[in-house]
Design goal:
Layout lengths: L3 H14 L5 H11 L3 H8 L2 H5 L1 H34 L16 E2 L8 E3 L12 H14 L7 H5 L2 H14 L3 E5 L2 H12 L5 E5 L4 H8 L4 E5 L4 H13 L5 E6 L11 H10 L3 E5 L14 H5 L5 E5 L10 E5 L1 H10 L1 H4 L6 H14 L4 H20 L11 E7 L1 H13 L2 E2 L2 E2 L9 E6 L6 H17 L5
Length: about 475
């Protein structure tokens, strides 16, 4: 058995003999043999520097070059971060120290605050029935699967949840993902090829944008909710000989709170022989008379629905696709986020099963959300604020336009016991900064009125209202 010193000496001789052929090999070899603290100490004390001067000089040069490159990269990032701060765009994360609810506790405040910026549309994030179901899932099916679905990660409750999702959306089948971001990231590459076309709204969610980038199909952008632009894109895709065409849109858009004109989109899809896919993350569970989303709200059916379990449906995590049997079967075989991600945790699956049972038999929560949305919008507009979005959607962007104002406005609202967040570039276009208020079925009318009063006081302070 060679000693440490003998082992390193042998390798350095070997490196030196091959230096002319591969300097990279010399550096890598020395680094591997000098990886322990003892061997690095020998190098620093000059033992090998004197014994093998040419090899050591090369090692030292490359090591110093790496340190310089690393320092330059760090300085580059620090400079960019400072530029973000100087522009008033740096995003601070407030720390919540309670369960998610209409009223929460945060580290920055010594008193409870009312939360108006969560995607907790139905107020289910801290629902006792769902917590009980999640605990029961832990007891019956364990903490996790430690596996992807197709190896040993599919339990009976995964199939039960997929069946309930398909039933809820009136589709053949459904498939679960770790998040809707994963569902959007995996669907296009799995279903479409370079001969095909994706026609997508310019303001679609980032996950759709990233998913489209992963696909080799031709991409056509149409202006936001502009049917003339959509038709022009469909005509262009047809004239360029695209085999299959898929129109993709958010059902409801998260930053603006507007709802896609789905009936017009479906009419155009029929005219130009295209499929339609919608992202329903900000619609499922509350939009439409029974909460079945944009399809129900607009009175039409589409081919593919991607949505989330992490917003209105309990606020935990998980996403899904609901569609025809052949589409779902194809995703099980080819969708990379499905094939290479762990199965959804049993506790989340069990809670989600309970959610769909609740939604399919009771609309009281979506009814309460609808009433809360109407109350907030009516009072805010009467006060003189400019609100964007569909009047029936609980996303209510209060437009302030200036990024620094939006951030300061949100900070001042916190002093009034209202938790909201200012949104600015790059999340929204430059010059369109806003406070995005999100209503929940958990809010009381008194809490909504308190929020409106706080908006008035802070707006007067900053000269937004007189």
């Amino acid at each position: 058995m060679l000693s440490v010193r003998q082992s390193v000496r042998f390798f350095l001789k070997k490196c030196q003999s091959q230096a002319k052929r591969s300097k990279v090999y010399v550096v890598a070899s020395i680094k591997r043999r000098a990886s322990s603290v003892a061997n690095r100490s020998l190098l620093h004390h000059g033992y090998y520097a004197n014994k093998y001067p040419s090899s050591f000089r090369l090692f030292r040069h490359r090591h110093q070059s790496r340190l310089f490159a690393s320092a330059a990269f760090s300085e580059h990032l620090k400079h960019n971060l400072q530029a973000i701060r100087d522009a008033g765009l740096y995003k601070q994360e407030r720390v919540i120290i309670s369960p998610q609810d209409a009223e929460i506790r945060i580290r920055e405040s010594d008193r409870p605050v009312i939360n108006f910026c969560a995607n907790n549309y139905l107020g289910l994030s801290n629902n006792p029935q769902l917590i009980e179901a999640a605990k029961a899932g832990l007891d019956s099916h364990g903490l996790g699967l430690s596996s992807v679905r197709f190896i040993c990660g599919t339990q009976d409750i995964h199939l039960e949840l997929e069946k309930k999702i398909a039933e809820f959306h009136e589709k053949d089948d459904a498939i679960l993902f770790a998040a809707c971001f994963d569902a959007n990231a995996g669907i296009f590459e799995a279903l479409l090829e370079k001969e095909d076309a994706i026609i997508t709204d310019k303001l679609n969610h980032a996950s759709i944008i990233d998913g489209v980038r992963l696909c080799k199909s031709s991409r056509y952008l149409f202006e936001h909710m502009n049917m003339k632009s959509l038709e022009e894109s469909l005509k262009k895709a047809s004239s360029e000989g695209c085999r299959f065409k898929l129109i993709v849109t958010d059902g409801a858009f998260s930053m603006d709170g507007d709802i896609a004109p789905l009936k017009d989109i479906v009419d155009l899809s029929n005219q130009y022989d295209a499929k339609v896919m919608i992202d329903e993350c900000h619609s499922t569970g509350f939009l439409g008379k029974t909460g079945r989303g944009t399809e129900e709200y607009c009175g039409v059916k589409v081919d593919i629905i991607n949505s989330t379990l992490g917003k209105a449906l309990g606020g935990a995590t998980g996403g899904y696709t609901a569609a025809s049997q052949e589409i779902i079967d194809t995703l099980r075989q080819k969708a990379r986020p499905y094939l290479f991600s762990n199965a959804l945790a049993p506790s989340l699956v069990a809670a989600s099963i309970r959610v769909f049972d609740m939604l399919m038999h009771d609309t009281s929560l979506r009814d309460k959300l609808e009433a809360n949305t109407k109350r907030f919008r009516t009072k805010m507009e009467a006060a003189g604020f400019k609100l964007m979005g569909d009047p029936n959607h609980p996303i209510c962007p209060v437009m302030l336009e200036d990024a620094k104002l939006a951030k300061q406005f949100a900070d001042d609202m916190l002093q009034h016991g209202i938790y909201v967040i200012g949104f600015s570039f790059p999340v929204v276009p430059r010059g369109q900064a806003r406070i995005r208020v999100q209503l929940s079925a958990a809010h009381s009318f008194e809490q909504i009125d308190q929020c409106v009063d706080a908006f008035r006081e802070v707006a007067v302070k900053h000269g937004v209202l007189s």
